[in-house]
Amino acid sequence: MRSATSTSVIPMHARPRIQNLPMDVLPHGGVRFAITHVLLPLLGFALALLAMRWSGGDQWLADRLYALQGGEWALRDAFVTQTLIHRFGRYAGIALWIGVVVAWLVARRRVEWAPLRAPLAYLAVAVALSVLCVAWVKSWSNMDCPWDLTRYGGLRPFVGLWDVRPLGLQRGACFPAGHAGGGYAWLSLYFFLGAVRPRWRWAGLTTGIGLGLLFGIAQQLRGAHFASHDLASAAICWTVAVATWQVFRPAMVRSRRLAAGTRAQGTQA
């Protein structure tokens, strides 16, 4: 006879198979993460920026882009670079960010979207903070655009980031690259997809890099920025994406577990 205190045993086929579903977000934290996602990328950005500064790489590249356009910035007002990529690209980025916010608001109201709440909140915050941080640095860095310099048909001498700006010289507002920053802000897709669809996280990283390169190269062709301006924007955006991920990661793990439980319940039903 079965004891009154004995517990019933749930058949194995009736148990949710949550243990077979991904329960964590990618990438994982720890020392390896600190090395591969923080130390190495930021060291790479720093070395690249120093190399551009010491070797004159900015001017070398800008000289060739300027010469290819006949000794002027012929693409400054071109439809593709100025209207399509610069203006409409900015509008598209804003619209995409608004779409993320709307999706987050929907996720807060729909139970079946609950696993997306934290990842969508992360993406919205990380993109916004990236753009704002680039704009903040740009507000005090006081560097000129290539098209402002006498070397490229402008009226101002070149003044480096750490150089003392001559008195009376109008302030510059071109470092880091704001438009490229609007593209690199989507590097945070890497972490968003790490929580939602881990296998797609590299596609997210590629998307962020691709948008940043597209916007950045277009602006270089217009004479609006040097290459180092784009590198600085990428470094800022990646730093913001990582720092914001550290804050949101616990909530993302909970969302991942909720997603695993939801799928398991659906399989059981």
From TrEMBL:
Residues 120-249 form the Phosphatidic acid phosphatase type 2/haloperoxidase domain. It comes from the Bacteria. The keyword Transmembrane applies. The keyword Transmembrane helix applies. Keywords: Membrane, Transmembrane, Transmembrane helix. Pfam families: PAP2 (PF01569). The chain crosses the membrane at residues 33-54, 88-107, 119-137, 175-193, 200-219, 231-248. This is PAP2 family protein. It comes from Lysobacter soli.
